[in-house]
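A favour, since you know our structure tokens better than I do. Could you add the entry underneath, on a fresh line?
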Amino acid sequence: MAGEMQALTSTDKAAIFLMTLGEATAAQVFKYLGPREVQKIGTAMAALQNISRDMIKVSVDEFVIDLQKQTPLGIGNDDYIRKVLTDALGEEKAASMIDRILVGGQTKGLESLKWMDARSVVELIRYEHPQIIAIVLSYLDSDLAAEVLGLLPENTRADLMMRVATMDGVQPAAMRELNDMLEVQLRGGSQGKAAGLGGLKCAADILNFVDRSVEAKISESMSEHDPELAGRIQDLMFTFDNLTDVDDRGIQTLLREVSTDNLVLALKGTDDNIKNKIFRNMSQRAGDMLREDLESRGPVKLSDVEAAQKEIIGIARRLAEEGQLSLGGAGGEAMV
């Protein structure tokens, strides 16, 4: 029982809970989830096998405990929404979402882009003004934004990232212009607080998901135009090498979610600091098996190594958002 529950992630528990609700109720819940959430939970549902009664009980009990911490009073009140989202997501992640909910009004056009593949998004925005494209990139999830950026003309990428990084917010009028382009009416007037899109962290998050060769060209071009801005973005980026700054407990949490094959690929060609960090947080037997796999694995494509590293970075970011580990070094929160 203990081993079963220790292996379950929060996504697994959410999947188990939804599966206990029945098809009709679970379908209603899915309507309120974003595309990435639907994909993660759906994948977890498909992967779960031999779900025990104890696993169901713990998942349901945790949900009930979390529910009891909430209050049914004040729903619809701005302060209530801000508190709930901040408690659930943390200040940084919640801030942008709060702006979209309370300030930006209905952004159905932008939300619809999140469900499209990158090529379809590019077809919709590629001939728009660069500032409009920058707003779209800021609004999309970082991994999708990175795919879109990679499909846009190479000579525009650095400019777009600089626009994202220097964006202080988006006025409702600009949001309306974007939604008009997508033939969706935006709720609200022309006055009001700017939506909290863009910024240095947003640009860094997007670049974290861009192919390394593309990211290098964009960073080089930005450095030529504005070295100080490029440096500030670089300071916020989290790379595979930054895993050495994650504490041991965080590395152990991460390793439980990473497949052995991906780990072997990701470690090919890395320096000893990274490898030693990983080995130190594995059992003797698991470490020996990993060393054997590394030694027996022949030459691999650099693109495969980078893809494996990006997948592991993505898992680390998700765990950080869930509060299960703290990303140290670049892009991490200072510890006191």
Q: What stands out?
A: The chain has 21 helices and no strands. Residues 7-68 form one domain. The radius of gyration is 21 Å.
